[in-house]
């Protein structure tokens, strides 16, 4: 596929965070971009406002006439999350189109560039966004494909004038094996996506394959202790090549010092909260120093970093109420988010609203979810968000609740959760989950702002 020849692009599943990034990329290149997704969202609204035509009906009759026959200059991209019985998907298959996965297209785009790829079962979106922001803010510049909406730039795609590209490398469906980076970061390899991999060893093997695909002379930066091929290490702990130390909270902000074998940066103020985000920042600093950003520019950029939508995002921050929203959907992510909130506000009672994501993940990690959620003071549990999955007998939200030690916990629907917050007016509220729990953010914000 020659990217320079592409004139028309159709994306099946255009509303996904990765797919929407490609839609914006090709739109910026001047291509005619169209697509299908199941339901309208804020993201699809934004794409529509940018001139991208989207249908929400899975009907072949909704496909523009210009995509009716295969021809040079036409590119069809699909996400593996699309059901195999999709009418639009099968229209293109039956017509003889060559379909590309999102990850394949990303691999082609990045292949001729100096690629900085960030992988990991968690931490990759924030880390890749940190790297991109440091490069942009310092004047080094880059393009970037991010797995979330950057709060600094209000988009998930950045366009630069050089050949550096920052890519979030997704392990789902082994997508990241299409990438051949110059510098690769691996933040974490906790068991996840076991519906795809079967067991943790298969996941680890896939990350090892990703690490082996670094270009000759390239660099692997990995968290200390990950069982991978030899490479640079980073961690917030002792005895690592790159570390954060002197970590502290001052007036609600996180500060730390950074050190590697060549550079020390003192009194870094991180523009976002969370101990886990300091760990992400250490990886980002190491990458950017290696690309040639000077220490002062790194420090300045970290202070001005505003995070990623739904990654430890402050929704309400008043003397009466604190409301934070986070994408956490794995036990380790939940533990990091909840623990960070408790460290920041040790004297406040924490109410957590959690929506489990996927039946398989709930089944595989019910004990871990229970342990992480028990750190909260009050829990409101929503039903499982199924995404691409069908129900599994005996697997539901009550499975997690039954394993928890906390007494102040209850199952509720979304509307009921809003009513409970309105009645109880929690001083510290955290919403967590990767499904459609984000639909609660604005209603809950309005409730808390109205009772302030």
Question: What do you see in this structure?
Answer:
The chain has 452 residues and is of the alpha/beta class. It folds into three domains: 3-101, NAD(P)-binding Rossmann-like Domain (Rossmann fold, 3-Layer(aba) Sandwich), CATH 3.40.50.720; 113-304, Mur-like, catalytic domain (UDP-N-acetylmuramoyl-L-alanine:D-glutamate ligase); 313-451, Protein-Tyrosine Phosphatase, Chain A (Alpha-Beta Complex), CATH 3.90.190.20. It has helices at 17-28, 42-49, 87-94, 102-111, 124-137, 194-197, 200-212, 275-291, 295-304, 331-344, 359-373, 397-403, 414-424, 441-451, and strands at residues 8-12, 32-36, 53-55, 74-78, 99-101, 114-119, 143-150, 155-158, 164-169, 183-186, 219-223, 232-234, 243-250, 253-259, 264-270, 313-317, 322-326, 350-354, 378-381, 409-411, 428-432. The strands form four sheets. The chain has a seven-stranded mixed β-sheet with strand order 8-7-9-6-10-11-12, sandwiched between helices. β7 (143-150) and β8 (155-158) form a beta hairpin. α11 (359-373) packs parallel to α12 (397-403). The longest helix is centred in the middle third of the chain and has 17 residues, at 275-291. The protein is globular. The mean pLDDT is 91. ATP binds at residues 120-126. It catalyses: UDP-N-acetyl-alpha-D-muramate + L-alanine + ATP = UDP-N-acetyl-alpha-D-muramoyl-L-alanine + ADP + phosphate + H(+). Cell wall formation. Belongs to the MurCDEF family. Pfam families: Mur_ligase (PF01225), Mur_ligase_C (PF02875), Mur_ligase_M (PF08245).
List the helices and strands and how they pair.
Elements (H helix, E strand, L loop, with lengths): L7 E5 L4 H12 L3 E5 L5 H8 L3 E3 L18 E5 L8 H8 L4 E3 H10 L2 E6 L4 H14 L5 E8 L4 E4 L5 E6 L13 E4 L7 H4 L2 H13 L6 E5 L8 E3 L8 E8 L2 E7 L4 E7 L4 H17 L3 H10 L8 E5 L4 E5 L4 H14 L5 E5 L4 H15 L4 E4 L15 H7 L5 E3 L2 H11 L3 E5 L8 H11 L1
Parallel strand pairs: 1-2, 1-4, 2-3, 4-5, 6-9, 6-10, 7-9, 10-11, 11-12, 17-21, 18-19, 18-21, 19-20
Antiparallel strand pairs: 7-8, 13-14, 14-15, 16-17
